[in-house]
Amino acid sequence: PEFASPETTPVPGTWDEPFATARQTLLEDVREKSVDSTTFAAELLRRLNADQPAEEVKLLLEGTRSLEQRSALARSLLADRQITARVLYGLELVSSDSSADLKPYLQVFD
Q: Which residues contact 93 (CB under 8 A, 6 or more apart)?
């Protein structure tokens, strides 16, 4: 089956300081390392998951404790650049553990 992309273009949010500046700085840095929506999303996720994140990433991740919250943050940051994405939940099929939890995955539309 073919899956259609969401039809609506995301609307950038309005953020208070210092979060607005942190978001803008992070997104500009990511843009310098990317060539399209896919590489932009990959670079953004790399920075959000870095062992030693930049100061703006640390600020944005404050209070983000779960993978779901981190995924929602990534989706929100992508929306600031009008990149459509959604959070999906799936299972990793690498284990025979029958009590596996659903994990959030980010689907990005180019």
A: none
Residue 7, pLDDT above cutoff 80? no
Whole-model pTM: value is 0.84
Token pair recorded at residue 16: 């208070």
Whether 85 and 41 have beta carbons less than 8 Å apart is answered as: yes
- Backbone Cα Rg of the chain: 15
3-state class of 103 per DSSP?
strand
Residue whose C-alpha is closest to residue 72's, from 82, 61, 56: 61
pLDDT tens digit sequence for 60-82: 999 998 999 999 999 999 999 99
At 82 the three-state DSSP class reads coil
C-alpha 10: how far from chain center: 13
CA-based nearest residue to 71, from 108, 34, 19: 108
